[in-house]
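Note to self: keep these together.
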Amino acid sequence: MIVKFKKNVKDIQIKHLQDVLNHQNYKTTFIDGDIYKLLVVIGDTSSLETKRLTVYDFVEDVINIQKPYKESLKQEKRKVNVGNVTFNDDNIVLIAGPCSIENDQSLDLLSSQLVKHHTHIIRGGAFKPRTSPYSFQGIGEKGLHILKEINRKYKVPVISEITDVRDIDLFVKYVDIIQVGARNMQNYVLLEELGKINKPILLKRGFVNTIEELLLSAEYILANGNKDVILCERGIRTFENQTRNTLDISAVPVLKKLTNLPVIVDPSHAAGHWEYIESLSLAAIAAGADGLMIEVHENPEFALSDGQQSLKPEKYFNLVEKIKKIAIAIDKKI
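Structure:
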């Protein structure tokens, strides 16, 4: 960290700030330059808020060189194992399934087709956080039981979204990956508790959150001991209204530069309409995403939630074939 002083700063003020920082176990070095007077602060400054130092009226600016999301930077390699599936720089992981689990027969029929077309993980919502309290909220614990049966029958990992910290034990029992949705990205109590379990977490970026805020949310999980975190870009809210959200494609290379965690993309929630999913999916893979999460439904017209942003199986299978071609071009495997 570098503290830049105002021109009229007094020696006694510099000494006072050094004493304050030294008392907090930071080492300091004063530089009396020709143009600026600077104080270099050495140590783990991730917990030292820059705003606290700007309280001093003799401080002009504070530059924090250390990133606040230090735990994600400690990971040696971008790798998370889920059963026989690996999220890393060499693979493209495909996650597909309905927005909401409606019944066991429909999910079984769909899953039997998906696993034959390079789908590595089956998704399905059991508890659905909806904007309107009158919208379909999911079938609850019964949906998790159905997912567990899909896992047993097809030997494929399953993922579902958690909405309540009280349901953690339930999710640990029935799913292979716990998804934290956009609305809960900053539910810090939930994130801390998920950090204490031995289960991979897929953390979605909130639709009004910055990349740094996403990484700091991941930090809550990592700092509590759970190192198996997968980040998911799912679109952010902008002034554009032709799509449900705006897919931040640039987030993929930026996140992969700033952290060593796997990064995937959810084009379904970004687009909000099935017609755009293919283009956004191909763009995400070309940008370096480690995987995709795509909503697929046998009969989107009759889906109980988000049918308009779900692909029919045939369109999804065609998309997978196109993804294969891009994978070859960027030296990845599906």
